[in-house]
Structure formats: C-alpha cells, structure tokens
DNA sequence: GCTTGTGAACACCTTCACAGCG
DNA sequence: CGCTGTGAAGGTGTTCACAAGC
C-alpha cells in the first residue's frame, strides 16, 4: 500500500522531532519528534483565548521538571531553586527560569520556588489536569506493551481501548482490556470518549488507520509507524520512530570510534 | 556536557527527540527528546580525517530520506529529485538539498539524484554499513516488544541479547532469543560483541544498569527509562520518553480545544 | 546575602532566492 | 529549461551576565 495520498497539496505544518526527539521518538520524539524526532507538529496561535504559546523545546523540558518535582514531593521537599531543579532535570538553570517565566509562574527572589505550586502551574499549562483517554490502535507487541505501560496511567492518561484488525487477536485479553475490532472504531471512540489515538501498526496500514481516527473525531495522534503521515489542519500528530533513534545512535557511535 | 532534550526528542526524539527528542522515540527518543538527547559528548571535529559533523536535525531527516529512497528502490525508480524526495519525506526541498550537500553527495544539476547512489552515501555517512549488535536490558513488555521489532533488523541492527534480572523471566524464550541473566552481562557483551545497549527497565533501576553497560564497554545507549541518566564523556546516550510524548500531545490537544 | 527574571549576545536551523551548471 | 548547490536573510532556541528584589 502506498504511503502518501496526493490529496492535500498544502503541506501540513507538521513534522519533528525528536525526535527527536523528539523526539520528541524520538522525541517521538515521542517523541517526540523530536523528534523527535525532530520537530513536532505545531498549531498556529489558537485564537487569543487564553493560550500562552509554549515553544516545543520548552514543553519537552517542562515534562522533565514535572518528573523531578514529583520526586521532590515524594521526598517531602517543599521548596527548590532553579539550580537544584535544573540539575535534577538535566538542564541549564537559566533556561529553566526562562521556561517557568513563560508560564507566568512566580518564584521568590532569594528563595526559590514552592514545589507544589510549580507542579500545579506546569500541570495546568500542559493540560494535564484533564483526564485523557487513549485508544491504542494495533495490538501487536508494541501495542500490548504500551497498553500496560505504567507511565501512562500515572499522569492522567487512561488507556480506554485497544483495537486490532486481526481476527486472531480480537477478543483476546491484555491486562484488563479486551482487544476490540478496528471496524467498530467509530462506536468505541464514541462510547469511551477517547481523545487521543496511538498508532502502533505496520507502516503500510498507518495512513488509513490515521484517517479513520481523524474521521472518528480524534484530533491528537501519537504514531509509532515508520512512515510520514498526513493529517488535516486541526489535528496534532506526533511521531516516535524507533528505527530512526537507533540510526542516529549508530551515527554517533561511529564518530566515537573513528 | 549537555544532558537531555527529549525525544524525540528526540528529545524526543526521541526526544525529542527531541525525542526527540525526538523523538524524538523520541522518539524511540529517543526522542526526546527528545529525545533525544544532547549533543552528548562534544566531539572535536576530527580534523580532516574523514569525519564530517552532521547537525542533529540533519541526522533525523537523513533517516527519513533513507526510508523514502528505500521505497523508491522497491518501486524500481532509479532517479529522483529534491522536490519529489522532499515531498515523500515530508520536508522542504531546500533543506533536503542542504542536508545532502553536507554529505558531499553530488546530484546532477538539471537532472536530480541517483537513488542507489544516495542510499549508499547516506548509509555510509550514518554508519549503517557496519553491523550493529544490540543488547536489550529489561525483558518486560517493552523489552520483549523491542526484541521482536522488525524495523531494527531491517537496517543492520541485530538484537543479540535480551537480559533481565527477574528469575521468573530469565530462561524464558522470546522470539528466537532466550532471556539471560543480567548478572552475566559482562560475559554476554563480550561473547556477542554487542555495541549498542537498549534500556527498557523501570526508572529506579536505569542508572545502575546504565553504569553496568558502560563498564562492560558499551558506549551507545538508547534509554526508554523515564529518568535523567548520567553517562561519562565518550558515551552516547539517547532517550525516548513515552510519557513525555503523550504529555506534549496533551498540551497541543488542549490548545486545539480552547 | 541569595535567587529570580530578563535583555542582549550568541549559536543553530530553516527558508528564500538565485546563481551555476548539466 | 530544469534542478542542484549555496549565500544571505529570517527564525527559533540557548547561554550569558546582571539588574531587581526578597
């Protein structure tokens, strides 16, 4: 099956990471997409409503701050400073302060930041106070691994459905989820109110399934498929590419040896 | 030394990752993050030897070009142009030409590029002509999924070992690999000559296992653990952070809705 | 004193536009 | 004429260094 449909001339403002990175996987990334990979998809200023627009690079770091802050909370630390937090998150203190100032978050000069406060500010800015419901498309090895990944549930992400097209897999149980048939996607998305789709399917099938997700109203998609996907404006796509990550690693490894 | 980006980061690409990250995974983020990780140890331009230093962003794209070129080969196309290839890879034609010119690769003005030639040039520049042997640390869901991931074997990456610490898992068979005991890491790395390590272990165990890998002489590591890892200079670390990828996605999704 | 917040300098990437050349 | 290769321009992201303020 072919990858690109020549439909849309207009090139989406997508693409990583990078990840990079970005994933970004990368990245994807994822992600991310930084990419991962490389860069990730970005939307134009979404109406002036309330949105502060945060740079992609800042977003990636904010998640690291959240993690470090979580560890501090667990250790019972109430206050921290840009120096300490930056070390823990593995970044430069200056850019950490700049990131936080983008949120409008206030620290106290001469003192530092209140841990709980920061967690709240960052979570709010990143949209983590909502409950996100994830539908995983593709119950192969990766899809099953993702559905059981503890790191998701821990921060407001709930896997509400796991779908596949193969009759051999549909109906089997993975964790506490039963694999459902992809042809019921529409009803399942509606019933579960899933708002994030994860594509863990072979490259050849990815664009079609991506289109299906979009058609069902899912507007945020994380793809692990090793292909370039096209999505209409108004849909956010991030890509995590495992083969890409290894290849970039190979490049650096080669350079070390030479 | 810098630390991380995500996916991908790449940095994702991952990331990402950058992720990127991205990445970045982060990308397998290896990303992320991006992820991607940092410029890792800063290599001096190896003087005139042979090393061209390629920007991280270029590396991420080169892998996409490779993929698109592979599809062209499969379709029996012998020549292509920056316009066509760029579309297929989802990038701007100008930057594609710039990327390729960094390799010293020659196209023909007025004509385009020879597909097979480009594949060779890019593969060589990225170190993909060697055989890379991958040891996967952690035979949980993710580790098992990775060990069976077809995308690895397809471009010179061979999974030569799958290790775990749990007695329940050691000795079991995954695909055509038998899970080995992590305490034998040293011998296994020596016997298989593994030169890339993949960490698919819980965050709490990651730094220790990372250190073990380094001690055994593995100097290229791709980590899926949701923690910041420290490695000595001379070791390349990339990171793919799945939770980060989803969080960045959540941010964009929230912004769409508002 | 200490740490934050930020302007300015810097480095890196991307896009544009066109010269160069088959 | 068409397409590559690239200087120059434009962005974006990071680091530096210091003023502001508890």
From TrEMBL, chains A, B:
What functional role does this protein have? Answer: Modulates transcription in response to changes in cellular NADH/NAD(+) redox state.
Where it sits in the cell: the answer is: Cytoplasm
What segment(s) does the record annotate as region Disordered?
1-24
User: Which positions in this protein are listed as binding NAD(+)?
Assistant: 138-143
Family annotation (InterPro entries)? CoA-bd, NAD(P)-bd_dom_sf, Rex_actinobacterial-type, Rex_DNA-bd_C_dom, Tscrpt_rep_Rex, WH-like_DNA-bd_sf, WH_DNA-bd_sf
Q: Could you say which protein family the record assigns here?
A: Belongs to the transcriptional regulatory Rex family.
Annotated CoA-binding domain residues: 128-228
Organism from which the protein derives? Paeniglutamicibacter sulfureus
Q: Which gene encodes it?
A: rex
The name under which this protein is listed is Redox-sensing transcriptional repressor Rex
DNA-binding region positions on the chain: 64-103
What Pfam families does the record tag this protein with?
CoA_binding, Put_DNA-bind_N
Q: Which keywords does this chain's UniProt record carry?
A: Cytoplasm, DNA-binding, NAD, Repressor, Transcription, Transcription regulation
Organismal lineage: Bacteria, Bacillati, Actinomycetota, Actinomycetes, Micrococcales
Q: Where is the composition biased (Polar residues)?
A: 1-20
What domain of life does the UniProt record list for this protein's source? Answer: Bacteria
* Assembly with partners or alone: Homodimer.
């Amino acid at each position: 099956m072919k990858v690109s449909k020549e439909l849309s001339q207009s090139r989406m403002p997508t693409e990583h990471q990078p990840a990079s990175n970005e994933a970004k996987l990368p990245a994807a990334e994822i992600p991310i997409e930084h990419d991962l990979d490389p860069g990730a998809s970005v939307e134009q200023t979404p109406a002036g409503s309330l949105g502060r627009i945060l740079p992609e690079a800042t977003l990636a770091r904010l998640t690291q701050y959240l993690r470090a802050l979580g560890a501090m909370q667990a250790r019972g630390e109430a206050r921290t400073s840009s120096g300490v937090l930056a070390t823990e998150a593995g970044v430069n203190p200056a850019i950490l302060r700049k990131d936080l100032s983008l949120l409008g978050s206030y620290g106290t000069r001469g003192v530092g930041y209140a841990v709980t406060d920061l967690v709240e500010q960052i979570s709010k800015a990143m949209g983590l106070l909502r409950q996100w419901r994830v539908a995983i498309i593709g119950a192969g090895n990766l899809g099953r691994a993702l559905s059981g990944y503890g790191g998701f549930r821990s921060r407001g992400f709930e896997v509400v459905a796991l779908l596949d097209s193969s009759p051999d897999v549909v109906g089997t149980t993975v964790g506490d989820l039963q694999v459902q048939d992809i042809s019921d996607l529409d009803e399942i998305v509606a019933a579960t109110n899933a708002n994030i789709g994860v594509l863990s399917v072979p490259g050849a099938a990815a664009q079609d399934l991506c289109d299906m997700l979009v058609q069902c109203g899912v507007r945020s998609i994380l793809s692990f498929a090793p292909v370039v996907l096209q999505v209409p404006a108004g849909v956010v796509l991030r890509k995590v590419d495992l083969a890409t990550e290894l290849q970039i690693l190979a490049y650096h490894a080669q350079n070390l040896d030479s």
